[in-house]
Write a structure and sequence with these properties.
The complex is a heterotrimer of chains A (431), B (345) and C (337). Chain A is α/β, with parallel strands linked by helices and 431 residues long. Chain A is globular. The longest helix of chain A has 34 residues. Chain C has eleven helices and ten strands. In chain C, the strands form two sheets. In chain C, strands 7-6-5-8-9-10 form a six-stranded parallel beta sheet, sandwiched between helices. Chain C has a four-stranded parallel beta sheet with strand order 1-2-3-4. Chain C is globular and about 60 Å long. The chains are: A alpha/beta (431), B alpha/beta (345), C alpha/beta (337). Chains A and C meet through helix 18 of A and helix 2 and helix 3 of C.
Chain lengths: 431, 345, 337
């Protein structure tokens, strides 16, 4: 089949890396793929990943139109980043297709989209979450407060998946909202990821022989990544203070950097903050790490690429026992309960520090399991099967959307539309 | 030209709109066109079903049709690039009757939504029409007020004018048409009770519901008027109806706030019969001019009784008013060929 | 329905209306438009779903798709055909839809919706075994074959056994009038052929006339390229030798076959005529031959020469109508059961 895939293609996007793997598997399985770059205009000039398939820009209207017309299925990789996914929002309402949902929280994406048309955004908020939530939504000044206050009540998942004819997501923890809002078929498929050159730069025995213990956290350094908790956990333990270095890789605000550095100094923790790095440096950092901390609170992602990547590298991984991480079987990671966060981190770190062999064994099990689980081939097969199901769901969905749009044009407001009188007779079209 | 007349229908219910559609069809064919009537079912009970009925019409696809003439809500929501409206009325429950408290669309958010939806859809249909005709000034005024739409009045001609040639009086007042409370046949019976014994009344037509007929029968019995009132409560073939009209002394017609001239009044005028009506009968007053072509009573039994006494037996006044009624009707020059020409213009 | 097109589907509805009224029922006929467009199919199907007759009627009988989607607590479906481009004609030259994932999706969704709507019905009837077979194959639904009778069949009667084989149907390509004309090049008797019926284009009739002139059979063939009245049709069938009816893969036995049988005349048809074979059995109620001019010619000669046998075929055809219960009382009985 011919698939048109909207995705960021810049090297900086982990979703772009995953979608690239899927695209390559689709091609291996005999499908045709055309990619539409979804980055916002300022980011469209970066060099795309080379997948060996035609790549067009989302703002190239005639080319995209042409590609849509000849496609069997249109696929949108959507994550919570407007800079990377704007093109999906531009085309999804016009050409409904399959959404590969990478995050169960799309608040930042929505905020930026809402910037263009506040009244429209408020009406979207109202229709999914009611007047009260809509009224408060734009009142949070700090990003952390915004996430904290909207993640549970108004994650905006429904807004995106309602426009989809089918959804693939990567874990089950946030699926209820997807099922509520998407009338088409929904599947949960593990996020594909790879570890390029996974042959370790240094062998486990070399790593074990190294002095000290390197603990690593990768990703935009913010409150959600719990770096402060890791610093405090190390700070509480004499052995960890003495033997462990905590390394942070990823974008970081100067204020946050200063605050964390001050905390580490006060507690006597060795902290190294590296900022953004390129792929090679990242690989090196992963290789040099003994333990990777993937802690998130609240959970926002459908799957964590950095946790998967760390497992693929055979690292001992410590995760928060929420969301996607909760669904990872206990024998492959160590879990931290949100209520006993710092003691749990400390306990796990001390245990891993004391037992290099156990650490290596855990990493080995994780690497083996991750390599079997997070496979692009599997994902591509599911995507192709879903495309067939979506084709059969699409005619009724198209009709339903047409009628809903007609009613809205006629001035109907949200609760008016799904009355039993209107919707009841159409249930026959639900397979 | 292939002309599709689009109307609504409720199974087993037949009235003025249905008659208009078949006569328009016949007139179009007579004028050399191909014509068909499309009757789209319309269920308004419960009222929250109305949006689905609107979408039903809106979703239908037409093909092999050059021109659409739509007569009613929601039939006129049908999509066609060459659509002309000839409106009998809008969905009044969504507009004016609500002000008078007679609407079945009650208060509440959903009702407000429904009324907005109807008004918006109406206006969309009006904008997408070639031309908009209405059957009466009243509908014209409502369209102007409710939707700021400028419509032309095109009164429906009489159906089968040849049947209503008039004739000698057999000495009765005739009240024909559908039997229901809005048409107020009961008021006539009550009025008859206080008129001289020489005045007789013939009421003929199909009751809307069995209880409407039952109510009249009981009323006649309770006033002991069986010997002066003939109740012929059934659907009458046009020919039989015309017979009743042609041999009446006068014709009574008391709808409440009727939109149009009313077929009953048109047929009576064509047959040269004076009218008995009430001052609140709306469009009927276009033909009923007090003491000129008609007795226009106050809407009560006493006032009507006077009209029945004056016009119920043949007199020079009744003959004069009958002739004047025919003259007024003829001067309106309402014919099918003219109507077809205007509708297709 | 499509406005201004009168076809078999509308006849049967109109006739049933009359028969039901005669049996004392109140009847309303509702024709709704439908445009054959894959992109607009489901919007139109939704519209039919919103047709609400539940409180105003005791029973509904639906005919052509998508009318069977109309919901009703007492829905009886007299199924005449599927939307064939998505069923038996899928992936054939007659299907308008390309075999793409999108159109396969529409096909699958249509099958599912049709099946669900058919399952809502109190009873499902078909107008032929061919359609019943398709219902079983595609929708896993058992439909009872309820053959549509013709209107006022008593109009058709036996008069005499003449020398002309009559063809009474629209002169259009898929009814194959040319095949019949070609056959006359091979007849050895004085058997004649008379084609009655309007052609879909005057060029088609002209082409046919040239065809039989070229074949040198113009003394054996007459063409009446016009719509003949019901009375004329009855009189033609009363005095013909037999009916020739050779459509390609028809869904049902076709009204001409039945009209001839009511006049106690056999039908000559071909092995590829489809539903016609449900009524015409070779050597019993007519003759069934290969769709070749030579084979048809031999059969025509046989009908002409063996007049006693021809007469017997006609009698058997008449009797077959009752055997197959192609009568209005049976139809009403089953529909209202």
């Amino acid at each position: 089949m011919r698939l048109l895939i909207f995705s960021p293609m810049t090297a900086a996007s982990a979703i772009g890396r995953a979608s690239g793997l899927v695209a390559r598997s689709l091609i291996d399985q005999g499908h045709d793929v055309v990619v539409v770059r979804s980055e916002d205009l300022l980011h469209l000039d970066t060099t795309p990943r080379d997948l060996g398939v035609p790549v067009i820009r989302w703002d190239d209207e005639p080319e995209v139109q042409k590609a849509v017309r000849s496609a069997d299925a249109v696929v949108y990789h959507v994550g919570d980043n407007y800079d990377l996914h704007r093109g999906c929002l531009e085309w999804l309402p016009r050409c409904p297709g399959i959404v590969c949902l990478h995050d169960y929280f799309l608040g930042d994406l929505f905020l930026r989209w809402a910037h263009g048309d506040r009244p429209r955004a408020i009406s979207v908020l109202r229709s999914w979450y009611g007047d009260q939530v809509a009224g408060r939504y734009f009142s949070f000044e700090k990003p952390a407060a915004f996430v904290q206050n909207t993640a549970a009540t108004a994650p905006m998942t429904e807004w995106v998946v309602a426009m989809a004819n089918g959804v693939i997501t990567h874990s089950s923890w946030g699926i209820a909202r997807v099922l509520r809002a998407c009338a088409g078929p929904v599947r949960v498929v593990p996020l594909p990821y790879d570890a390029p050159n996974v042959t370790p730069l240094s062998s486990p025995s070399e790593a074990a022989a190294r002095d000290g213990l390197t603990v690593l956290t990768v990703g935009h350094v913010n409150a959600n990544k719990r770096a402060e908790s890791v610093i405090r956990a190390i700070g509480e333990s004499e052995r960890l203070r003495a033997g462990a270095v905590y390394r942070l890789i990823g974008k970081v605000d100067p204020a946050v950097e200063a605050q964390l550095a001050a905390l580490a100094q006060r507690l006597g923790v060795s902290l190294s903050i590296s900022g953004e790095v390129n792929d090679a440096e990242l690989r090196e950092a992963l290789d040099g790490a003994d333990i990777v901390c993937c802690l998130r609170l609240p959970a926002l992602e459908a799957a964590s690429a950095s946790a998967i990547e760390a497992m693929l590298y055979g690292k001992a991984v410590i995760v928060m026992d929420t969301g996607f991480f909760h669904e990872i079987p206990g024998e492959y990671v160590l879990k931290v309960a949100p209520a006993t966060e710092i003691p749990d981190i400390r306990r796990h770190l001390e245990h891993l520090q004391a037992d290099p062999a156990g650490r290596a064994a855990l990493g080995g099990r994780a690497a083996d399991w991750a390599a079997r689980t997070f496979r692009a081939e599997t994902y591509a097969q599911h995507l192709a099967q879903l495309a067939v199901e979506v084709a059969a769901a699409a005619p009724a969905l198209e009709a339903t959307r047409y009628f809903a749009e007609t009613l809205v044009r006629w001035g109907a407001t949200e609760p008016f539309i799904p009355t039993a009188d209107l919707v009841g007779p159409l249930r026959i079209f639900e397979a | 030209m292939k002309v599709l007349i689009v109307n609504n229908m409720v199974p087993f219910s037949w009235g003025g709109a249905e008659e208009l559609a078949v006569h328009l069809e016949a007139a179009l064919i007579k004028a050399g066109h191909e014509a068909e009537v499309l009757r789209i079912p319309f269920q308004t009970d419960p009222w929250m079903r109305i949006p689905s009925q609107m979408l039903l019409v809106h979703a239908l696809e037409l093909h092999n049709v050059d021109r659409v003439i739509a007569l009613k809500f929601p039939a006129y929501l049908i999509r066609h690039p060459q659509k002309t409206l000839w409106l009998l009325h809008q969905y009044r429950q969504a507009y004016d009757l609500s002000d008078a408290g007679m609407s079945d669309i009650h208060l509440g958010k959903q009702a407000a939504d429904l009324r907005r939806v109807i008004a918006t859809a109406d206006e969309e249909a009006f904008r997408s029409s070639r031309r908009i005709f209405v059957i009466s000034e009243i509908t014209q005024a409502r369209l102007a007020k409710n939707n700021r739409v400028d419509a032309e009045v095109l009164r429906p001609p009489l159906n089968n004018p040849e049947l209503f040639g008039g004739g000698t009086s057999d000495g009765y007042v005739f009240a024909g048409g559908r039997i229901n409370a809005m048409k107020r046949q009961h008021l006539l019976v009550e009025a008859l009770a206080s008129t001289p014994g020489t005045v007789r009344l013939v009421i003929a037509g199909p009751p809307d519901a069995p209880k409407d007929g039952e109510r009249l029968r009981r009323l006649v019995e309770s006033h002991d008027l069986s010997h002066r009132v003939t109740l012929d409560l059934r659907f009458l073939p046009r020919r039989e109806l015309a017979e009743y009209v042609n041999h009446a002394t006068a014709v009574a017609c008391l709808p409440y706030d009727e939109d149009s001239l009313s077929y009953v009044a048109m047929e009576a005028s064509a047959a040269g019969k004076p009218l008995i009506t009430t001052s609140d009968s709306g469009g009927v007053l276009g033909l009923a001019r007090h003491l000129e072509t008609a007795w226009v009573a106050a809407p009560d039994a006493a006032s009507l009784a006077e009209g029945l006494s004056r016009l119920g037996t043949e007199s020079s006044a009744s003959l004069r008013m009958g002739a004047a009624a025919r003259e007024l009707w003829t001067s309106m020059e309402l014919t099918w060929p003219d109507s077809v020409e205007r509708l297709l213009a | 329905m499509v406005p201004f097109i009168l076809g078999g589907g509308r006849n049967i509805v109109d006739w049933l209306d009359i028969m039901l009224r005669e049996a004392g029922h109140d009847v309303e006929r509702i024709y709704l438009p439908h445009v054959d467009s894959p992109e607009l199919l489901f919007r139109q199907m939704a519209a039919y779903r919103w047709v609400d007759l539940a409180s105003s009627t005791d029973l509904i009988v639906t005919f052509r798709p998508p009318a069977h989607l109309i919901p009703h607590p007492r829905k009886v479906i007299w199924f005449i055909h599927h939307i064939r481009a998505f069923y038996d004609l899928w992936n054939t030259a007659y299907a308008k839809s390309p075999d793409t994932l999108v159109h396969r999706g529409i096909r699958d969704a249509l099958h599912a919706a049709d099946t669900a709507a058919l399952k809502e019905a109190r009873a499902v009837f078909t107008n032929s075994q061919v359609v019943a077979d398709r219902l079983r194959r595609f929708n896993d639904i058992e439909g009872e074959v309820l053959y549509p009778p013709i209107y006022r069949p008593e109009r058709f009667r036996f008069g005499s056994l003449g020398n002309e084989i009559a063809s009474v149907s629209r002169i259009v390509r898929h009814k194959r009038p040319g095949l019949l004309i070609d056959a006359l090049r091979f007849t050895r008797t004085d058997v004649k052929l008379h084609l009655y019926g309007a052609s879909d284009s005057s060029s088609h009739a002209t082409e046919l006339r040239r065809r039989f002139k070229d074949a040198g059979v113009d003394d054996k063939v007459t063409i009446d390229d016009r719509w003949i009245s019901e009375e004329e049709k009855a009189s033609v069938l009363a005095d013909c030798l037999a009916l020739a009816y050779v459509p390609l893969d028809e869904d049902s036995y076709g009204y001409p076959t039945l009209e001839a049988a009511h006049a106690s005349k056999p039908t000559l048809t071909t092995t590829d005529s489809g539903g016609v074979l449900e009524f015409v059995e070779d050597g019993v109620t007519g003759l069934v031959v290969e769709p070749r001019p030579e084979a048809l010619a031999a059969a025509m000669d046989r009908l002409f020469m063996e007049r006693e046998a021809t007469r017997r075929l006609g009698e058997a055809a008449r009797a077959r109508i009752d055997e197959m219960r192609i009568t209005w009382p049976h139809v009403l009985d089953r529909l209202l059961a």
